[in-house]
Amino acid sequence: MGSMFRSEEVALVQLLLPTAAAYTCVSQLGELGLVEFRDLNASVSAFQRRFVVDVRRCEELEKTFTFLKEEVQRAGLTLPPPEGALPAPPPRELLRIQEETDRLAQELRDVRGNQQALRAQLHQLQLHSAVLGQSHGPPMAAAHTEGPSSERTPLLPAARGPHADLKVNFVAGAVEPYKAAALERLLWRACRGFLIASFRETEGQLEDPVTGEPATWMTFVISYWGEQIGQKIRKITDCFHCHVFPYLEQEEARRGILQQLQQQSQELQEVLGETERFLGQVLGRVQQLLPPGQVQIRKMKAVYLALNQCSVSSTHKCLIAEVWCATRDLPTLQQALQDGSSEEGVSAVAHRIPCRDMPPTLVRTNRFTAGFQGIVDAYGVGRYREVNPAPYTIITFPFLFAVMFGDVGHGLLMFLFALAMVLTERRPSVKAAQNEIWQTFFGGRYLLLLMGLFSIYTGFIYNECFSRAATIFPSGWSVAAMANQSGWSDKYLSQHPVLTLNPNITGVFLGPYPFGIDPIWSLATNHLSFLNSFKMKMSVILGVIHMAFGVFLSVFNHMHFGQAHRLLLETLPELIFLLGLFGYLVFLIVYKWLRESAASASTAPSILIHFINMFLFAQSPTNQPLFHGQEVVQYVLVVLALATVPILLLGTPLYLLRQHHRRNTQRRPAGGEDKDSDKLLASSDASTSVNSWNADEEKAGIPGDEEEAEFVPSEVFMHQAIHTIEFCLGCISNTASYLRLWALSLAHAQLSEVLWAMVMRIGLGMGREMGVAAVVLVPVFAAFAVLTVAILLVMEGLSAFLHALRLHWVEFQNKFYSGTGYKLSPFTFTVDNE
């Protein structure tokens, strides 16, 4: 947790890897996941790097693995997870893996091809048998009848005359059912009816040789005479992709052929069964080879890609790599290099080198803190060694959410939902769920847990549980004392449905409620007015404290980066401006709460009028001051706040400009040789201070080495002017922005009240009138539960979450957090193992 408050120290390390041990060393680093490689060959094309051939071989193997995986899934099998931690294979193993994989893939292609051919052949035999087995019957010559009508003219003439030598021919086959009607229609139109066609559906379904799904076919037998008609019929059947089979005229010959087809089908089925059994054996070998092979080849490819980012020494005996590594992990890095290079009899060297570039940001997280760190990183990754808002967000984010979502019942439901995810987080089925919404909830389970817990706490403060108040402690108000001392008669009670409790009467107000809001306020007609005043002032107090804490955190940034001038020229004026105006408003709210009592409530001064008069330098005769000398204090605070504006605007730019002129004055007397010696001294000094980059220069957008040459006063003044205007106006707008706590809290309470009044109250009343409360309340409670989850938990919860997110990003983090860094992306095999 030490690195949660500030990102870890990261150093730039140069690695000298002997060529013989480079692969092993990088593989060891990938197993540890400690370093991020810098690309030293950025100007070199990816196709011209040293290990591009090895990368291509790995990619070819991945393509083969993809083919094997698809074949396994096609067979309805699953791949087992790889057993244990598999290291990256040695380079000499790549050829063996490639040969074994290619041989297995080719064998699988051959077996799959034979299976497809046998299935297609079996399908043709089954179709031929279905055509011969259907009772189409060979059409005989139609009898000749007299009559002039062409419809009565026989298709075939009498056995005597000039056409006595013509013979009836047949075309038989099978076609898909959806093509049968179009085929029959086209045949009739093309041949002008000079044919007899019979279409019948197969009795059973036949397995498709490609998809393996059962399908129904239409068999047909067409009889015709004449060669031209036959050519037309064959062309049409070819266009419809029909399966055409020979069809003999004699029935006995057809039966003989049908028996032969059935015998051939049985033999083919036996051969196909043997082929499928052999295919199962091949797929079993694929299941054993594929899981470990995929992991190993991915690791090997990752190693070669990392090696491609290294440069080659002038002697070609070692590779030079530059990596970012956390300082605390340097001993582990050195030990990993020694382990990786010891087998080759050579030693890899690692040493820190200076760098003027801003290092990457490394913040280690665990299952609990990952969700909160994700909220911060969604705004922007912090600069190197900048204060990390995540530890404070763990408390402030659920609390501000709960201020807007405060309800014991709703918070308890959210807490139980998150607790169920936390308790089942180690189950593989829960982790492997592919639903995107579920993955979002599961990733933020600890955030939801704290949000629900804090909502229960604020719900007890608001004394609301599904919009109903609970009497945990005795009320601080006594109706009996008011009735006894006011002399309420039956006539007075009948004429006044609303009664007023006077706290100035002895015994009516016994004291404040021990914890939270007194439950008697839920019965009062001015309940909403009371909560309006309470929650609005509470929102202002929380907002000012939250913003002041953000300004205070900037102190740690300035101290760490050696910017002492910013403490006096930025942080102190910002605190004076914020606390002198809005901190004073918080003081007035708390002071009035402590000073005024029920007896003086009617004559209590208005804080709002006092705050307006403070900026107008005016007085209100009807609004008495809260304390002696209040007007003088207000005038002094306004003057101080206004006096800090020019300090904020000009302080830092003038200081940096003065420092720049001082450096130039010190360097002017020196000649060219002195300048060269200064550069050497500067480089030697830089070598003693690793990663010696200047945060002031980074913030102004100027590289460190060229700060003196490229210092532009106008840019610095413009940057500071933007910062000053943003802060001064932001104090006003941000304070008003925290009023969303008041607005959403009231909206949530009123929605809960409306849902209770429109559903549960009506249901309870219906049950009492009808005398069947148990039966009526079942659908009523079901509707109440569904609406509560859908509207109050999901929709209202999402709304409160987004508003709490905005308060942290805009109102809190912009006081001290720039978010202009980039994450450390270590070279690791963890994803491959998963």
Automatic annotation (TrEMBL):
The chain crosses the membrane at residues 399-423, 444-462, 505-524, 536-555, 575-594, 601-620, 632-657, 770-795. Keywords: Hydrogen ion transport, Ion transport, Membrane, Signal, Transmembrane, Transmembrane helix, Transport. The keyword Cell division does not apply. Residues 1-22 form the signal peptide. InterPro entries: V-ATPase_116kDa_su (IPR002490), V-type_ATPase_116kDa_su_euka (IPR026028). Residues 134-153, 665-704 are annotated as: Disordered. It is a multi-pass membrane protein. It is found in: Membrane. Residues 670-679 have a biased composition (Basic and acidic residues). The keyword Membrane applies. Essential component of the vacuolar proton pump (V-ATPase), a multimeric enzyme that catalyzes the translocation of protons across the membranes. Required for assembly and activity of the V-ATPase. This is V-type proton ATPase subunit a. It comes from Mesocricetus auratus (Golden hamster). The gene is Tcirg1.
